[in-house]
Specification:
about 260 residues, alpha/beta, seven-stranded mixed beta sheet, three-stranded mixed beta sheet, about 25% helix, globular, binds glutamine
Length: about 260
């Protein structure tokens, strides 16, 4: 049976994710309301504009259901604005910040690479992806007014990083106390991570013909469903065995 993946369809590149899923024989289901998450096993949160997406998510009262979905351990993949949604902490936000779903133990900078004009494409080394899904040791990274991950917690696996572009504008960020100069002194920055059920990429695999990120996510979905199935069968088999009375014929039909 084809895998069914929810795609948050409030704004941004959800159509492109739906098409990418179709290309690998999976089915995407557009999600706009909390009740549409019920019964889904996995979810993609696409790129777009995270402030707008957060306003729409709030309007549709989606935050509690999204948090519950992530907290239940179901696979969730955030691309670009979706990564911002999943981060526990975001900097470089508009004043007042924005609501986040959270769950991913990292600090993300919302517009790390600068404005729309600093959007770029690059070849990213992706050894883990190549090991799991085969193919080239690099993938095409499409960065559109992209965020980046400044810090990760101990349970977060880094899947890709990239050099910080030389001409990257320094950005002043707003914190609770007012304006702060942003300091980022490393020469590389993290752009793809995994933490258990959460996958996050700062770039847009759905805009390329390389389907390996979508395949990796489907593999996470499959593993997670196999685990829930195993847990269910375990709890069913650990319950009291049915006592079959002696001499009772076991022929079908079993209703009396
Ligand atoms: N930096 C953008 C934001 O804040 C995200 C851009 C994208 O998703 N392509 O929402």
């Amino acid at each position: 049976m084809a895998a069914v993946v929810g795609v948050l369809a409030l704004q941004g590149s959800y159509n492109e994710h739906m098409a990418a899923l179709r290309r690998i024989g999976a089915k995407g289901v557009e999600v706009r309301k909390p009740e549409q998450l019920l019964g889904l096993d996995s979810l993609i949160i696409p790129g777009g504009e995270s402030t707008t997406m957060a306003k729409l998510a709030d309007y549709h009262n989606l935050f509690p259901a999204l948090r519950e979905f992530v907290g239940a351990g179901k696979p969730v993949w955030g691309t670009c604005a979706g990564l911002i949604f999943l981060a526990n902490k975001a900097v470089g936000q508009k004043s007042g910040g924005q609501e986040l779903v959270g769950g991913l133990d990292c600090t993300v900078h919302r517009n790390f690479f600068g404005s729309q004009l600093q959007s770029f494409e690059t070849e990213l080394p992706v050894p883990m992806l190549a090991e799991k899904e085969g193919g080239s040791l690099t993938c095409r990274g499409v960065f559109i007014r992209a965020p980046a991950i400044l810090e990760v917690g101990p349970d977060v696996e880094v899947l890709a990083d990239c050099p910080v572009p030389a001409g990257r504008p320094s950005i002043t960020i707003t914190s609770g106390e007012g304006l702060e100069d942003e300091v980022y002194s490393k020469d590389r920055v993290i752009v793809a991570v995994r933490q258990g059920n959460i996958l996050a990429t700062a770039f847009h695999p759905e805009l390329t013909s390389d389907s390996r990120w979508h395949r990796l996510f489907l593999a996470m979905d499959k593993d997670s469903r196999a685990r829930s199935f195993a847990a269910l069968s375990l709890s069913a088999s650990s319950s009291e065995p049915e006592v079959v009375p002696k001499n009772k014929p076991l022929d079908l039909p079993i209703f009396e």
